[in-house]
Design goal:
heterodimer, A: 134 residues, mainly alpha, Cytochrome C3, 43% helix, 4% strand, elongated, B: 247 residues, Alpha-Beta Plaits, two-stranded antiparallel sheet, 7 helices
Chain lengths: 134, 247
């Protein structure tokens, strides 16, 4: 009985380790976050889609990491100068969104600024209140 | 500016511009050395909604408070809504101002959202004032603000039905209809120059000011020859005083 139990245990441990390797390698294959990055500071909200920038526009990780953006999401948001003014001066998104490499930061506002409504849709938040036809 | 004639180069009189706008044509530029302009047809819905400025220029109100909304700058951050709620104690079942959303397409067919701030239009011919049986809502003879007199309101909601802009709600606590009054009691009467929403807007979408002052930003924004300005639901004849434009 003990021997049999031990065999099963070994089997389970073996299987688990195999699965763990599988998951880890799966993560390796995902080169960038699949979910959009959502900025909520200083205004709610701005969306950044890795897929769009990498696959459609051919950027690689080094294009933006670690300059102007560190890998950890939310790092730039903690900076006081993470504002449109900085973008116009060529910082952050403005490094590319300058009207030459990509559309200028002071145009097409709502392509990135999805607003409170866009934020609620992406995060599944139901807006409170029932005013008007919302 | 007055007294200038269209026979001078690089100048279009207000009257000329008005006539062109009525025809559904947008003035795109002035031909150097001549008075005739190059014209393009406006998109149909824009042309229909274009402001005919008759009635707006000569009102008895001084200051005549209006708002110009630079629509394409709105990013729905809703700081205006937050500021309004805080300033005017608006409950969560109603609103004095809100942001609507629609989807538009650019030239390449790419879809993008358009955010449209809405609030009381403080109409020159306000349908709400006309239908109120108790004179609980009136147009202030000095400023043109459509105001509520809560103690006179019987809560019949006729004004809510009459308003073309869905700008009124029944306030349970006040037992009366409530609506935007350009922050008259909470800010303007205390010497503030801006409404709470305009002051809170980070993108200068809500430009508030005195339309009777031709040096004001609101007047200048509306009187740019090459810019289309429109109002919501012009067909009601209410003559709304919230103007919309892009840029």
């Amino acid at each position: 009985m003990i021997e049999k139990g031990l065999k099963i245990l070994i089997c389970i441990v073996f299987l688990c380790s195999f699965m763990a390797v599988g998951i880890a390698s799966g993560e390796d294959e995902e080169e960038y976050p699949q979910e959009p990055i959502i900025f909520t500071k200083p205004v709610k909200a701005v969306v950044f889609d890795h897929k769009l920038h990498v696959e459609d526009n051919g950027l690689d990780c080094e294009s933006c990491h670690d300059d102007p953006f560190e890998m950890a999401a939310g790092t730039a948001e903690e900076n006081k100068d993470f504002t449109m003014k900085s973008l116009y001066q060529g910082k952050y998104c403005g490094q590319c969104h300058d009207g030459e490499s990509a559309f200028a930061s002071n145009t097409r506002c709502t392509l990135c600024h999805i607003g409170v409504k866009g934020y609620n849709r992406l995060t599944g938040v139901k807006p409170k209140g029932h005013g008007g036809h919302e | 500016m007055k007294g200038k004639r269209s026979d001078q180069p690089n100048y279009v009189t207000d009257e000329e511009r008005r006539e062109f706008l009525k025809l559904g044509l947008k003035i795109t530029g002035v031909l150097a050395g001549g008075s005739v302009l190059s014209l393009v047809p406006l998109p149909e819905d824009e042309a229909k909604a274009l402001v005919e400025m008759e009635g707006y220029e000569k009102t008895p109100y001084k200051p005549h408070y209006v708002m110009v909304i630079r629509q394409n700058h709105c990013i729905d951050c809703e700081r205006c809504k937050e500021a309004c709620v805080k300033t005017n104690h608006v409950p969560d079942y109603g609103y004095r101002t809100t942001i609507l959303e629609k989807v538009a397409e650019d030239d390449e067919g790419k879809k993008f959202p358009v955010f449209m701030p809405v609030l009381c239009n403080h109409c020159l011919n306000p349908p709400c004032v006309r239908v109120c049986p108790t004179k609980a809502t009136t147009k202030d003879p000095k400023t043109g603000i459509v105001v509520m007199h809560y103690h006179k309101c019987i809560g019949c909601k006729t004004c809510m039905a009459a308003c073309p802009y869905n700008a009124r709600y029944f306030n349970e606590e006040k037992r009366a209809i409530d609506k935007c009054n350009f922050c008259w009691d909470t800010r303007l009467s205390k010497g503030e120059k801006l409404t709470a929403c305009a002051a809170a807007c980070p993108a200068h979408v809500r430009v508030f000011g005195d339309f009777s002052d031709h040096n004001s930003e609101v007047w200048k924004l509306v009187h740019q020859p090459d810019k289309a300005v429109w109002v919501l639901r012009p067909e009601t004849g209410a003559k709304p005083c919230i103007f919309y434009m892009n840029d």
